[in-house]
Specification:
single chain; alpha/beta; Aspartate Aminotransferase, domain 1; Aspartate Aminotransferase, domain 2; 2 domains; 7-stranded mixed beta sheet; 3-stranded antiparallel beta sheet; globular
């Protein structure tokens, strides 16, 4: 029997087999209506019911305060880089811990005032800052951080002290992977193609009390208040992506919720880091306290062997392990849908590869 294939790509990421099976079965007929979800009108009673159900599950899983609003929007996290700056007001302060937080700062600078209060680029984004290494300027309007950097492989495991400033977080690549202090944030956003489903929709959690009036020239669809008033429907939404997101939330609950997945994710990451720490054949440059639970990048001591590693990994059913194009090397993305069996197979493959070529 052919062994199962495991997809380690950073995003769009693998979906659980159960979710794919449900989508396949339901695609021609949404909830007995005879109409595919691909054809459903976004203002229909049926889709409105799906919207309410999805939001309720999302609120339950993340323990979102009742006075916070939940939005589901297109545009990905990249749109939120600019939108958050336009709506939170004041000079944004950014903890730049990898390529994505650097991009968030760049986009914010295009539309508002923003500055880095800590920048890890000089050290190659291999660690996170201590709280004593950065200060907020007096005119800070908000503090922004990217919780998990998919390229650098660093992750905040504790919420940084915002020192009184509203806190904004990009949780795209780690949302639902472990509990988070939702109520400590003014704004959280997460694009879906990691732990929430497929590309095309972004979840936004916002404390309306933190919002400021955007500049007068701001297009209406970049104003959170427009989305709040329209209940996430100022225009036609990505209906199918919304449907898949709802499926992923149901699957997350069926796994035991965020706490159960957090324990599983700890075990998966520990398997890979144990191989890396026991070997000089593989190189992971991230400081242990800053290591990501979702994205594990590494190099081979002999870089000439990386192409061989990737080729043999595919033959072993371990797909999409190539590192980001800006860095090369190897990267294993082990989001919620990746089973422990997949990580165990990768760990054993790495040990066997070292025995053959080390």
């Amino acid at each position: 029997m052919t062994p199962p294939l495991y997809h380690f790509g950073a995003g769009p990421a693998m979906l659980p087999a159960e979710v794919l099976a449900e989508i396949r079965t339901e695609l021609p007929d949404f909830r007995g209506s005879g109409i595919s979800i691909l054809e459903y009108g976004h203002r229909s009673p049926e889709f409105r019911a799906l919207m309410r159900e999805t939001e309720a599950d999302f609120r339950e899983l993340l323990e979102i305060p009742a006075d916070y609003h939940v939005l589901f929007m297109p545009g990905g996290a990249t749109l939120q880089f600019a939108m958050s700056a336009l709506n939170l007001g004041g000079r944004g302060a950014y903890l730049v811990t990898g390529q994505w937080s650097a991009k968030a700062l760049h986009e914010a600078e295009r539309v508002a005032q923003a500055q880095a209060v800590w920048d890890g680029s000089q050290s190659g984004y291999t660690r996170l800052p201590a709280d004593t290494e950065w200060q907020l300027p007096p005119d800070t309007g908000y503090l922004h951080y990217t919780v998990n950097e998919t390229i650098a492989g660093v992750e905040f495991h504790l919420t940084p002290a915002s020192r009184g400033a509203p806190l904004a977080a990009d949780m795209t690549s780690m949302i639902l992977s472990r509990p988070v202090a939702t109520a400590q944030h003014a704004l959280i956003y997460a694009s879906a193609q990691k732990n929430l489903g497929i590309a095309g929709i972004t979840a936004v959690i916002v404390n309306p009390a933190a919002l400021q009036t955007p500049p007068r020239a701001t297009p209406s669809l970049l104003d959170y208040r427009v989305w709040l008033e329209a209940e996430s429907l100022p225009n036609t939404p990505p209906v199918f992506a919304w449907y898949v997101l709802g499926k992923m939330l149901k699957w997350t609950k069926a796994q035991g919720g965020v706490g159960a997945l957090a324990a599983r994710n700890q075990r998966k990451a520990a398997m890979l880091y144990a191989v890396l720490d026991a070997s000089d054949f593989y190189v992971n440059k991230v400081h242990p306290a800053s290591r990501s639970l979702m994205n594990v990048p590494f190099l081979l001591h002999d870089r000439n062997l990386e192409a061989v590693f990737l080729r043999e990994a595919v033959a072993a059913g371990l797909q999409n392990l190539a590192g980001h194009r800006s860095r090369g090397g190897i990267r294993a993305s082990i989001y919620n849908a990746m089973p422990e069996a997949g990580v165990a197979r990768l760990a054993e493959f790495m040990r066997a590869f070292e025995r053959r070529y080390g």
